[in-house]
Specification:
With 473 residues, the protein is α/β, with parallel strands linked by helices. Helix content is 41%, strand content 17%.
Length: 473
């Protein structure tokens, strides 16, 4: 797109991080670079030209492919760090069709590099699907037992599905360490998550490239009502069909071949038993899973019945704002930002939905530590928390660790870390997650029934915030 401000950022980074590490030949050479390099650089140059930025002149260099690979993988990082651009950026630039083509090209390039670059041992496979496992937290999150889930989830039970953006090794110990480190404070209630609610984790293996994940996220934002991927259908077939209909058969074209139907009351109850918790781009994955369930459900039920049933499915997210003004699901969506965010934007929330970020961000206008906004569907809330520049948590080895988030509030530890002292954001996130997983919906998710002093304080603040909630137009 013309005048896309990220084009200059990408070009400056290329000159510094690729050409600065490549061999200058001093003379123009006939193209001797591998086809994978030529193809990626061609798309990169088309991106520059479309944005009215002069294309790269690399004919006098022997490109350092290790540097080029790291550049391709770090494109989103360059966007994240461009705070000056993020100040006034618009969605038409962050979700530009040329941007999609660039990330598609970077994804193809990193896969083509498999086994071709000395010292690079990572193998990429962007066609890989979700890994899905059940987390037994009855012994506490520190003793979590994680097992691959190969059968459909029980729609008669309360179910919490964690959609994580991270790409993790297909190893129980690695996932257990990640779960404890990142979700400790939010999932430590064994009565809720060890007994009453079944917990599952959906994530991608480490072979999935960052480029591919970003491309999926942008496409989801561009077409939130219809965009899905083959991997999304595969996961729904493996895990979620039982919520839509018992004993369902679906063919390779994702058409329902046979199924028994629930009555509309049971269909609604099924989705009332389903809560998604998602972080960052994992929310785009969760969104597409709901879209797939809608597409399948509408083959059996009316659109109206499907819509009413899915409104009972609840999404609790962090670091990713609602994609639609009228979502298929209900939910509470948290993010954190600096009270003075001039050149301190929470980068990923801002990139993915810049206009909404500005409309609902926390601002230093009063004494309350958050701002609540209500989406037009009146079923989804946005809670913008005041970001702490630094804070102290208890780590997995029971040590006190000072956290300073270089991404100005994007780290999920802001709401899931085991903090010292009372913190409104983490208390409220924990409350919403526990209540939603237990089947509560609407404003009921914001309040605890069993009160201690901190819970009373949190409840009073939330009552005030909900009374002041600002509706989007």
């Amino acid at each position: 797109m013309k005048n896309n401000p990220f084009a200059k950022i990408f070009k400056e980074a290329f000159n510094d991080d690729v050409l600065g590490k490549s061999l200058f030949l001093g003379r123009r050479e006939l193209s001797s670079e591998p086809a994978r390099v030529r193809e990626f650089l061609s798309v990169l140059n088309r991106f520059f030209v479309s944005a009215d930025v002069a294309p790269l002149d690399v004919g006098r260099y022997a490109i350092n492919e290790k540097a080029l690979l790291h550049y391709a993988l770090f494109l989103r990082g360059y966007m994240r760090d461009a705070q000056k651009v993020l100040q006034n950026v618009e969605a038409k630039y962050t979700c530009d069709e040329d941007m999609v083509r660039l990330f598609e090209a970077s994804s193809r390039y990193v896969v083509a590099c498999n086994g071709k670059i000395k010292g690079e041992k990572r193998v990429y496979d962007d066609q890989t699907g979700y890994l899905f496992c059940k987390a037994d937290l009855s012994g506490g999150i520190e003793n979590a037992v994680l097992k691959k889930q190969s059968t459909p989830i029980n729609p008669d039970r309360k179910n919490l599905i964690l959609f994580m953006p991270f790409r993790i090794k297909h190893d129980e110990l690695e996932l257990k360490k990640w779960l404890y480190k990142n979700m400790r404070n939010s999932l430590d209630n064994t009565q809720v998550f060890g007994q009453n609610t079944d917990v599952y984790v959906a994530y991608f293996p480490i072979e999935k490239s960052r480029c591919s994940k970003i491309c999926s996220t942008i496409k989801t934002i561009q077409n939130p009502q219809n965009y899905v991927e083959a991997q999304d259908f595969d996961l729904v077939k493996r895990a979620f069909l039982s919520f839509v209909a018992p004993r369902m058969q679906i063919d390779d074209n994702n058409k329902v071949v046979s199924a028994e139907k629930y009555d509309t009351k049971q269909l609604k109850e099924n989705f009332s038993n389903l809560t998604f918790m998602s972080y960052c781009a994992g929310t785009a994955d969760a969104h597409r899973i709901v879209t797939v369930m809608r597409k399948i459900s509408e083959q059996l039920y009316s659109k109206a019945d499907t819509r009413e049933a899915l409104q009972n499915l609840f999404v609790v997210s962090y670091g990713f704002l609602p994609i639609q003004k009228y979502s298929d699901y209900s939910g509470v969506h948290f993010f954190s930002n600096e009270a003075d965010d001039n050149y301190k934007k929470e980068p990923f929330t801002k990139m993915n939905n810049p206009e909404m970020y500005e409309a609902c961000k926390f601002q230093k206008t009063g004494v309350l530590p958050a701002k609540v906004s209500l989406m037009p569907d009146k079923r989804n809330f946005v809670v913008a928390l005041k970001n702490d520049i630094s804070f102290t948590v208890v780590d997995h080895k029971e040590r006190l660790v000072q956290i300073t988030d270089g991404e100005y509030g994007h780290s999920i530890v802001h709401v899931t870390g085991s903090r010292l002292g009372y913190d409104f954001g983490s208390q409220q996130f924990k409350t919403v997650l526990e209540n939603a997983a237990g089947g509560k919906r609407g404003t009921e998710v914001f309040y605890r029934q069993q009160y201690d002093d901190a819970a009373v304080h949190t409840g009073l603040i939330m009552s005030s915030l909900l009374g002041q909630k600002q509706q989007f137009v």
